[in-house]
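[agent] plan:
  1. take the single chain provided in the ticket
  2. run structure prediction with default settings
  3. attach structure tokens to the ticket
  4. add a short note for the reviewer (M.T.)
[agent] executing step 1
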Amino acid sequence: FFSVGVFFFSLCAVHAQLPFDVYGGLNIASTSTTDFSMFDISDWEKFGLKSANSSSQEGRVRIDLATMQPSSMNTGLMIGALRKVNDNLTALFEIQYSLSGIKLIASNIGVNYALMKGEKFNLDLTPKVGYTKGTADLGVISVIPGYTPPVILTEGTFDEGDNLTMEFSGLQINLGITPT
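[agent] step 2 finished; step 3 output follows
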């Protein structure tokens, strides 16, 4: 709570000296994934297939992504800057950082286009485009019984109990409605 208060007062102090408006706040987004499946990772090319030779030292781990699908409510902070272009259009730049759930950092550029302007209430259409980079925890790797741990590949070594993570990055497109 204290850090949120310091963040808010810092924004107010910085805002008073800049040629654009600064905003910040909490960013809450739900994340889910689909179409994950189960697969095995094996070092059979180095040690031979156990199914073809029972004395093989093949290591094989099962990655059951179907049960490890990352799905969470992400809570984070966002900070941005607005610059008025004309009476109905404002340009924006924004940085988002998650504090829980899937770890991510994103930067966006976009606009707020005034759909409705009133004395006490405005409604803007807010399209944004940007770049996102993050990681998701997919759970723990398990060695298939009867196989020799660890699995040794040129890409890395996989052993019982290792944590499996997924890294992702790419284009982010948002379309939102912004009430003020």
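[agent] step 4 note for reviewer: The mean pLDDT is 83.
[agent] ticket updated
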